[in-house]
Amino acid sequence: MSVNAHSLSQPKQNSGFFSWLWEWLSTVDHKKIAILYLFGGGLFFLIGGIEAMLIRIQLAVPENTFLVGHNYNEVITMHGTTMIFLAAMPFIFALMNAVIPLQIGARDVAFPFVNALGFWLFFMGGIILNLSWFLGGAPAGGWTAYAPLSSEFLGNGMDFYVLGLQVAGAGTLMGAINFLVTIVNMRAPGMTFMRLPLFTWTVFITAVLILFAFPALTVGLFLIFFDRLFDANFFNEANGGNSIIWEHIFWIFGHPEVYILILPAFGVISEVIATFSKKRLFGYSSMVFATILIGFLAFMVWVHHMFTVGLGPSANTIFAIATMAIAVPTGIKIFNWIFTLWGGQITFNTANLYAVGFIPTFVMGGVTGVMLAVPTADFQYHDSYFVVAHFHYVIVGGLIFGLFSGFYYWWPKMFGRHLNETLGKINFWLFFIGFHLTFFFQHFLGLMGMPRRYFTYLKGEGFDAFNMVSTIGAFLMFFAVIVMLINIAYSAVKGEKAKGDAWEQGRTLEWSIASPPPEYNFAQTPLVKGIDAFWKEKMDGKDKMTAAEPVGDIHMPSSSIVPFLMSISLTIASLGFIFSAHDGVRKPALFVAGAGVVLFFLCMLARSIKDDPGFHIHKEEVIETEKGVR
Amino acid sequence: MKKWRLSLRLFPLFAIALLLSGCGKEGLSTLIPMGTVAKEQADLMLFSLLIMVLVMVVVIVLFTYAIIKFRKKRGQEDFIPKQVEGNAKLELLWTIIPIILLIILAVPTISKTFAHSDTHVAKGDDVIKVKVTGHQYWWEFEYPDQKIKTAQDLVIPTGKKVVVELTSKDVIHAFWVPALAGKIDANPGQTTSLWLDADKEGTYKGRCAELCGSSHALMYFNVKAVSPDEFKQWSKDMKDGPSAPTTASAKKGEQIFKNNCMSCHAVGEKGGQTAPNLSNFADRENIAGFKEHNKKNLKAWIKNPGKIKPGAEMPSFEDELSDDQINALADYLFSLSVKK
């Protein structure tokens, strides 16, 4: 794939494995970073998927002994943490990087260096977390890591959780700030806010949510970090701490996190459905308004994760009403999508199958969400399989359907080759059927009294049949992912070459340039004349955008290895802190941690002192490249 | 509540409710409620479900019609659909109707949430108070008015309001008896509360519902509902303590118990408080909360508790006590009954 991705190589490149490796380690090009996010996230997605399969194998039959006790808790913790932080988030960042600069007519993101740093921090954070498997055991406190279980009762694995997420979270926060600035500052002439494609809008709101939500996680992780490594007592009741504080901090981050995940999926669905219905998005303004409202309400509802904590009926009902209110803007979106389909001319390729399959699936997850908002009924649902079913409907049936739709849709733009449609459809149907088999019946398991995070259930509790069905469904999903991997490999070798307007009915700016785009994206910055800018030009009988500037030299940022080195130094620091929990090596480990931090600051210093003017791609070269691509 | 039940009956979709109530095992399922709180919760669950099914049906019908009617057909490749911007009336419609539906749902939500959280006990109220403490991985039950302590099996009288006050000795647990009432967390250093009652005599399954460590999945308990008279008798008997062992083996077992177990376990008032009180051990429903109540399982437990409940605090006595000693200990424990 890399062959396609850098058809336009920078000067001074040698061939060979090491220069190839160097190029990827030091790239600051948003299109390459997108690919890094995609495969980095993909790696963790597979690991998280294998963990899911282990869970389902253990629960297939009652009183199974395949994976029990502490080991089971490790696997569920790592499954949740991996899927949320190390698979879903990077997948979203992959699409953001691949698409946002192209959709707004920009040549790169606002801070290419920070972009690379964001990726490497995420990736090394994931590595730190997963190293726990080999260095004394994984975290086992659930992805929510409730104190005091996480702060006092569990072993070294929790330190990997704390520091791995701290490093990965810093990367996410940087990435979000970068995209905020990019979307605010780097829009092409004429691309007003109310002409932004809806995917860009949702990413914008998601970035705002990350900006306000992730610092809460950072603070919470620091508190646990100090509790665990330096005997602070933030969550220790016996010494005047309060364990409920962690729950508040975690969910003040955790609830917006759910919307951070789902909003970009809403964006993808809006793009894909509009494109393959050959219609503009129905109710664009209300879609934008609904997105903003959902983003705002995201911060108002965290207590609905804590109804059973015992905060009292007043707090519970206030947050219940706020939670129910979210159903209104979400409902607006659902109906707008249906009415985008209405009266259109719908093509059912894999991208659109995922988008269309998303609608009823996500509505299922949404309505159970409203049911969960009723506090006294939630006393029954809470921490039961009903909740497990609900959030998998929202996160798999919502987010993952959206992401897969986006992958199939933008794959030709990212790699210059289409994914195979036949394999794609097999992939979709296996995944769709497998998903519903796995999770639909878990609603009933929960109502029948099966709590979540149970490594087993007893014979005679009546949970056998639904659990077996659920495991069978999980295997179907597993096969679906294997088919997708085959599809990716097939496409890399034999995939149909993609045109610039790969689907021939593209509406937004990214389809007006070559697939994959040249390093500088737009030879001339486009002039945007309305919503769905490229569609508008095509309807006027043109085949490319009106330019806003003459062809000229294009300034590009130079690549840099510093982001990678900075991430390595934080990894060293983290591992130092993690091992400082072992009594015997406390001092040397703290010394290593200090060395890592010093190294990190040295990298920052080097970056600040060295003047980096970037480089230019000359006008002649641009003209030459543009000739070849159409 | 009568009004809501009435409107439920009028709903043609009531069939779903019937379908659901066939779900699960009696004494374990939220869908076969056996107490006031669980019943009202189940009603509310079904009521919200019916509204949601209504919404789903509307969405699915529109959605299915759209994807069948407007799919691309052969021979119209050049067709460009009308680029509709929106429709203010329609958009208002699907904003206002959900708001109305949510208001309808919000009314019983608020009233029932307050009702179910009301655990205030005024002087002279005829309620049973129980202090519940969660431990990794067992439950301690104390009746402050009756001055009784027991573990694992919570005995309550039928038809009476039972106010449960929760706390934890170590990590966060959650107290859940699906057939009687929803769960509330047991937080270390704090107290929370809930109330429940049981209509019928019987045994209801309880479980921990907040991840609390290795054996979270095995932290079961039982709620035994007995008639009010029986409860009165039981609490009196509990205060008197278990009858003394009669057989030689059990007497030998008592001595072994005193030497090995009493630093943690208590029988009657005597003994440690860090492990379950065993005063009425022979009357329990299960060994370790979930195994069948017989001597074989008890001996296996004493030999190696960690094998049955991973991470259990109790040490293994396999190497400490001989098989004979363990047999005697089991005989003693099975003599600990308050039933006359």
From TrEMBL, chain A:
Q: Return the EC number.
A: 7.1.1.9
Biochemical pathway: Energy metabolism; oxidative phosphorylation
> Molecular function terms in GO for this entry?
cytochrome-c oxidase activity; heme binding; metal ion binding
TM segment ranges? 34-55, 75-96, 117-140, 160-186, 198-226, 249-269, 281-303, 315-339, 351-374, 386-411, 423-445, 465-490, 561-582, 588-609
Q: Which UniProt keywords apply?
A: Cell membrane, Copper, Electron transport, Heme, Iron, Membrane, Metal-binding, Respiratory chain, Translocase, Transmembrane, Transmembrane helix, Transport
Top-level EC class: translocase
Q: How does it sit in the membrane?
A: Multi-pass membrane protein
Gene3D superfamilies per record = 1.10.287.70, Cytochrome c oxidase-like, subunit I domain (1.20.210.10)
Q: Which residues form the Cytochrome oxidase subunit I profile domain?
A: 16-529
Q: Where in the cell is it found?
A: Cell membrane
Q: Which GO terms describe its cellular component?
A: plasma membrane
Q: Could you provide one GO biological process annotation from this protein's UniProt record? A: electron transport coupled proton transport
Superkingdom, taxonomy of origin? Bacteria
Check the record and name the InterPro entries matching this protein. Cyt_c_oxase-like_su1_dom, Cyt_c_oxase-like_su1_sf, Cyt_C_Oxase_1, Cyt_c_Oxase_su1_BS, Cyt_c_oxidase_su1_bac
Q: Catalysed reaction per UniProt?
A: 4 Fe(II)-[cytochrome c] + O2 + 8 H(+)(in) = 4 Fe(III)-[cytochrome c] + 2 H2O + 4 H(+)(out)
Regarding protein family, the annotation reads: Belongs to the heme-copper respiratory oxidase family.
Its function, per the record, reads: Cytochrome c oxidase is the component of the respiratory chain that catalyzes the reduction of oxygen to water. Subunits 1-3 form the functional core of the enzyme complex. CO I is the catalytic subunit of the enzyme. Electrons originating in cytochrome c are transferred via the copper A center of subunit 2 and heme A of subunit 1 to the bimetallic center formed by heme A3 and copper B.
Q: What is this protein called?
A: Cytochrome c oxidase subunit 1
From TrEMBL, chain B:
Question: Which part of the chain is the Cytochrome c domain?
Answer: 248-337
Task: Cite the cofactor comment.
Answer: Binds a copper A center.
- Repeat in keyword set: no
- Report membrane topology: Multi-pass membrane protein
Q: What does this protein do?
A: Subunits I and II form the functional core of the enzyme complex. Electrons originating in cytochrome c are transferred via heme a and Cu(A) to the binuclear center formed by heme a3 and Cu(B).
Extract the NCBIfam families matched here: CoxB
The name this protein carries in UniProt is Cytochrome c oxidase subunit 2
Q: Which organism is it from?
A: Scopulibacillus darangshiensis
